[in-house]
User: What shape does this take?
Amino acid sequence: MNAAKEKLVVIGNGMAGISTVEQILKLTTKFDITVFGSEPHPNYNRIMLSYVLEGSKTIDDIVLNDLQWYEDNGIKLHMGTAVSRIDEQSKEVVTEQGMRVPYDKVLIATGSNSFILPIPGSDKEGVVGFRDIADCNQMLEAAKNYRKAAVIGGGLLGLEAAKGLVQLGMDVTVVHLMEDLMERQLDHQAASMLKAELERQGIKFKMGAQTSELLGDTRVSGLRFADDTVLEAEFVVMAVGIKPNVAVARESGIAVNRGIIVNDYMQTSMEGVYSVGECTEHRGICYGLVAPLFEQGSILAKHICGVDIAPYEGSVMSTKLKISGVDVFSTGVFIDGPEHTVISNKDDWKRTYKKILLQDGIIVGAVLFGDIDDANELQKLVKNKAEMTDELYASLMGTGCSGGGKKTAAVETMPDEEIVCGCNGVTKGTIVDVITNQGLTTVDEIKACTGATRSCGGCKPVVEQILQYVLGDGFTAAAKQGICGCTTLSRDEIVAEIQEKGLQTTKEVMNVLGWSQPEGCSKCRPALNYYLGMLHPDTHEDEKPSRFVNERMAANIQKDGTYTVVPRMYGGVTTPEELKRIADVSLKYDVKVVKVTGGQRLDLIGVKKEDLPKVWEELDMPSGYAYAKSLRTVKTCVGSQFCRFGTQDSMGMGAILERKFERLDFPAKFKMAVNGCPRNCAESCTKDIGIVGNDGGWEIFVGGNGGIKARLADPLCKVKTDDELIEIVGAIMQYYRESGNYLERTSEWVERIGLDAIKANVVDDHENRKALMERIEFALQQVEDPWKKMLNDTEHREKLYNRLEMSNQL
Assistant: This one.
C-alpha cells in the first residue's frame, strides 16, 4: 500500500458501504481502500434477489460492481471474510480468521440480519430467512424437492419470497399477523387491492394469524397457530422483519442501541469509525429502506473527504416498490384520521388507486397503487410541506388540461440531491452532471455511466424527463437511438430500407445500411432475421445462426444442459392415445419431470440433446413452440360443451385458432385464451389476445400480459360470428407482426401504437382488415413444423444434436 495515503477499511460489501465508496472515489484518491465482505460474492443488488428467485435474472445479472471494478479502482477485496472486531488501541481491524489490517478510518456497513421468530421449532431444517444469495439458493433447492411452503410475514420481503416460490411451482401460503399486507407502507384500500392481485397470481393468504410453533421432527412439517389450527408446510421462510447487524460494533465497545449509534455526520462513539445503512441508528431511527442509506453515504463521503456538507437530519420516509409486477408507493402519513382531508381516486378496471392526505391544507402524505407516475412529485411535496392549490390538484388528479410540460416541470424543481434511482443511489444532480459535462444524450449512456435504470428500471421515466429537461430543444434529435449499438437506424427505418432496396439477408442489410459492426450483435441479428422473414415470407431463407439457441434447437435449454420438449395440445385438449405416447416416451428417455403448464400443456423436462430427434419422432405430435417468438398456447375453459354456465364453444374455437395460426413468427411470444362465458376461467384478460363468449357472440380483448410487467388487456370490439372473430384475430396478429418492434410484447405495442389505431386498422377499416388477413394467410402457407423438418434433414440433425452446438451462440 502507498504509505502516503490514508487507510480506509470498509466492513461490509453491500449496497450501503460500496455506494459510499463510489462517492468517495468521485471526490478523492487519498485513500487506500480495503473491503471485507462476509459473502463469497462481489457487491450485488439485494433488492433484486426476488428476480433471481423467480428466474427472470441470474446472480450475475444483479451484480453491481464486478471483480474488475475493485481491481480498476485499486480496492483490495476480501470476500467470504467476516470481521470480528475493531482494535482501537492498535488501530487494526481483526477478522474471525485472525487477519489484522491497519486503518486510519473505518466504515461499518454490516447491514441487517433476518429476524427469526423465537418460537419452538424455528431451528428445524427447512426454515430460512430471505436476506442474501445463500437464502435464495436454499429456496431454489427446496422448490425442487418439496411442494408446500409457508412464508411468515406479509411485508415486502415476504411477498417477494412468496411470488418467487409460486413461480418455482410451490403451493405457497403467506401467514401474516395483521389484517392488512404491508401495513407499514399501505392503507387498507391499497393493501386489499394488493392482496387481490397476488391471489390472482396464485399466492394464498392466512391473515390475522399468530404462529406459535413450527411442527415436525428434524425437518419442519407445518405451522401451529395461537388458535391451535395447523397449516401443512415442508418449507418455511421467515420474513417478519430485520434486525441491525451490530455484532462488530458491540464486540469493539462502540455504543449501540437497536443499531450502531451515530451523530449527524455518521460518526460512531469510536474515533475515526463511521457507520451507514441498516446497521445504523440515527436520532433513534434505524432505516430499512434503500434511499436513506444512500443519503447517509453521500453525506459521509463528503465529510471524510473534507467537503463542506450540511449534516444528516434524517430521511422523509417513503416507499416506492414493485411487488410481483405491481407498483406501489407511499410517503409521509398514509393512514387517514379525523384531522385529515382525503383526496382519492380508485379505478377498478385499471386497478389503480391514489390517495393524498391534507392537514390544514398542507400535503402530509400519499398512497399510490398501480400507477406511480406522480411518486417523485408527491414525495417532494410532502417533504416541502406544500400547500394544496387548485392548479396542483388538477395536475395530480388529472382534471386539468393535458400537456407535455407537466413532468418536465416536476423534474425542473427537483433538488439536485434528490435520489432518482433508489436501487443504485443516483441523484438528479449526478444525472444532470453527466449529461452536461460528458455530452450524454440517451438513457442507455446514462445507465452505463451512473448505474441509473440498471436494476429494476422503475426510474427510467424520470431519467428520460431529466434528459429532456437538460437537452431542451435538442432532446428529440439527440435522443434518437437505433435498434442496437451497431446502427442509428430505427426499426421503421430499417424495414423501409429493406422494402425499398429489396434486401434479402442480414449481411446485406448490415453492409448496405452501414452497420458499425460488420457481423452485428445479439440484439440486431435476430431482429433483422425476423423483419426479413416478415417482409419476404416466401423468399427469405431463415438464418439459423441469427436465432437464439432455444429457437435453433427447437427446444428450451435448461440450466443443467438438458432440454424441455413441449408438444402441441390444441386448445389445451389431448387424447388418451397422446397421453400414453407422452408417458411411454418419458419413461424410455428418462425424462426428469412432466409438468402441467399454465397454458394447459405438458412439459417434458430433462431430455438429453442427442435424444431430442428421437423424442420428437416417437411422440409424433406437433411442436408446441414453447421456445419461439410465436404462438405459444390458446388456453380454454370447457365452455358450452360441458359447463352449465358456458354460452360459446371455447374449446372448439381455441383449437381452430391454434391450428390456424401456429408456427408463424411474431415479434415476441404470443398467447391467447378463449372463455366460453364472462366468468373468465381461461384468464383471457392477461393474454395478448383474449376472447370472451357471451349470449350474442364474442368479445375481443388485446394487449394483456401476466408476466413481470403485468397488464390487463384492453377491450377492442364485439363480434357476432365465428368467421368475423377469426378474421379480426388474424388481422390483429398481422398488424402486430408488421408494426411491432422485435421483442416488444403486445402489452407494450398497444400502449405505443394506441388502441384507437388498432381499432381503425382491424375493426373499422374492412378493406384493410381483409388485406391484413390475406398477408397472414400467405405467410402461413410458407411455414412447416420444425420437428418434422429436422427429422427429414439428416445433415442438420447430425450437426445440431450429435455434435457440439454451433459456437455462434445468441
Notes: Residues 400-406, 803-809 have pLDDT under 50 and may be disordered. The first strand starts at residue 6 and ends at 11.
